[in-house]
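Exercise 7b. Backbone tokens:
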């Protein structure tokens, strides 16, 4: 079965433009994100215009994704929008937007996502989420190690 995003160009020259408004499953873009995940559906809107012998799509894709906050590891869901441009020769008969959209999502992927601008992160000593509770440990500046320090000593009375 062809992708819903493989759009026929056969009426392009007669109509002058082809509007695109498709909602597709996120599974069409399995490798778009290196971290995090897409949620639900992806909506693609725009239009295809003929430019000489080329069909040019201009539009945007949008949806929801989920990342972990880089400071406290809480999952964060956020809406995203990515501009999309694609083209194909009109003679090809169709324009498949799938790969261009996958790349656009990949480029739009945030480098760092935080659950809120003032996220306090995890305590470097006890890993308590300090947004939820103040464990009372002093913040001793940037930690070189992310690993929790756990020392377990057998207690032999
Ligand atoms: Zn956070
Ligand atoms: Zn602590």
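Sequence design result:
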């Amino acid at each position: 079965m062809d992708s819903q995003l493989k759009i026929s160009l056969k009426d392009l020259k007669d109509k002058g433009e082809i509007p695109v408004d498709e909602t597709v499953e996120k599974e069409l873009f399995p490798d778009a994100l290196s971290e995090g995940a897409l949620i639900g559906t992806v909506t693609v809107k725009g239009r295809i215009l003929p430019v000489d012998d080329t069909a040019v799509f201009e539009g945007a894709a949008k949806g929801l994704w989920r990342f972990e906050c880089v400071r406290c590891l809480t999952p964060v869901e956020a809406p995203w929008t990515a501009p999309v441009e694609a083209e194909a020769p009109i003679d090809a008969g169709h324009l498949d937007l799938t790969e261009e959209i996958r790349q656009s999502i990949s480029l739009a992927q945030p480098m760092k996502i935080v659950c809120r601008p003032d996220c306090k992160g995890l305590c470097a000593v006890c890993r308590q989420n300090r947004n939820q509770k103040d464990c009372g440990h002093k913040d001793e500046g940037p930690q070189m190690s992310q690993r929790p320090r756990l020392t377990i000593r057998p207690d032999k009375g």
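Instructor comment: The first helix runs from residue 12 to 15. The beta strands are 6-8, 18-25, 37-51, 54-68, 75-89, 94-96.
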